[in-house]
């Protein structure tokens, strides 16, 4: 199953975003839990729902598998008017400066194929497990935050405006040497809490990602695991998992209003669709 790798499976949910990546667990230590279905916390007129969105890139028969997994526009069979009709994350017309990423990997678009390649139809499924606990007085709710190393935070008066690109391109630098490409932003946290869980969502080529506190302390570094074999989940040279921080709840505390710094690091070579997301779970209180 070479055509699925960690880089290719993302699942987004509007109300509740949970990691997502194969080889990366998202188990929440007891007594912390994500609260769901509390009628006092659901806005009037809204309904809570789950959404599971699977992104799969089939690289069978692709002329260039690596470019295909990076959703490189020039390696896709794009419709003629692609650049005229596609809108970017800010709802602006995509310009030809856009070299690759999510917008070139839309549903039903196909990577350029080796001539004559015939791929049998394949079914793909996602296996997941959700554990429920009935809410009781011992459960402590956690909040899930997704930070993005492309977030150009702005403010309007006291209001903080996030402006995330979700993905970025690492330019060809021509022998960038051994030091990685670093994408970095400062992201204020309106509300803090105790760090319960942290991990990065990144793609193949990742070196690592680190979240720092305002005083420079390291809150969590997430490092990659690359595959070494052929079997599903261990494909050679593909990213197959990112490490997780499970600090002892308590000592790592983010303060209200603290400005965090997120650095995502990739090998310094041309890459499109790079992501540098950091998922953190924060508890605003600790068990008594
Ligand atoms: C699409 O863009 C090209 C070049 O930018 C232009 O020549 C063409 O007329 C456009 N087509 C449409 C349908 O807007
Ligand atoms: C800032 O807020 C004011 C008042 O809500 C609004 O009129 C203005 O458009 C905002 N500016 C930006 C840059 O968002
Ligand atoms: C993350 O990568 C940087 C750059 O290669 C390196 O200096 C640092 O030691 C790495 N951190 C960890 C915890 O692996």
Word description of this protein:
- There is one protein chain.
- The chain has one domain (8-52, 126-283).
- Mean pLDDT is 87; it is low at 1-20.
- It is mainly beta and 288 residues long.
- The chain has helices spanning 65-69, 82-85, and strands at residues 32-33, 76-77, 110-111, 140-148, 154-156, 159-161, 168-170, 181-188, 193-201, 206-212, 218-222, 224-226, 239-242, 244-245, 253-254, 259-266, 271-274, 277-283.
- The chain binds 2-acetamido-2-deoxy-beta-D-glucopyranose (3 copies).
- One 2-acetamido-2-deoxy-beta-D-glucopyranose binds at residues 81, 84.
Features:
single chain, 288 residues, mainly beta, six-stranded mixed sheet, four-stranded antiparallel sheet, 2 helices, 18 strands, 3% helix, disordered N terminus, binds 2-acetamido-2-deoxy-beta-D-glucopyranose, signal, Stress up-regulated Nod 19 protein, Stress_up-reg_Nod19
């Amino acid at each position: 199953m070479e055509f699925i790798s960690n880089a290719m499976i993302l699942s987004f949910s509007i109300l509740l975003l949970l990691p997502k990546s194969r080889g990366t667990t998202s188990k929440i230590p007891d007594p912390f839990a994500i609260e769901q279905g509390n009628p006092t916390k659901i806005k009037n007129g809204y309904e809570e729902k789950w959404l599971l969105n699977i992104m799969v890139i089939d690289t069978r028969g692709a002329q260039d598998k690596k470019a295909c997994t990076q959703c490189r526009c020039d390696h896709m069979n794009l419709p003629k008017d692609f650049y005229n009709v596609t809108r970017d994350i800010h709802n602006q017309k995509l310009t030809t400066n856009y070299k690759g990423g999510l917008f070139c990997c839309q549903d039903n678009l196909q990577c350029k194929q080796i001539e004559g390649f015939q791929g049998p139809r394949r079914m793909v499924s996602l296996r997941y497990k959700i554990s429920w606990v009935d809410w009781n007085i011992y459960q402590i709710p956690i909040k899930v935050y997704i930070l993005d190393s492309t977030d150009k935070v702005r403010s309007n008066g006291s209001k903080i405006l996030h402006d995330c690109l979700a993905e970025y391109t690492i330019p060809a630098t021509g022998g960038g040497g051994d030091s990685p490409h670093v994408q970095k932003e400062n992201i204020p946290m309106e509300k803090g809490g105790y760090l319960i869980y942290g991990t990065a969502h990144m793609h193949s080529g990742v070196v690592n990602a680190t979240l720092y506190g305002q005083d420079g302390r390291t809150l969590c570094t997430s490092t990659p695991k690359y595959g070494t074999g052929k079997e599903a989940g261990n494909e050679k040279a593909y990213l197959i998992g990112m490490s997780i921080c499970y600090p002892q709840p308590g000592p790592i505390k983010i303060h209200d209003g603290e400005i965090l710094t997120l650095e995502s690091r990739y090998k310094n070579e041309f890459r499109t669709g790079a992501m540098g997301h950091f998922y953190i779970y924060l508890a605003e209180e600790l068990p008594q």
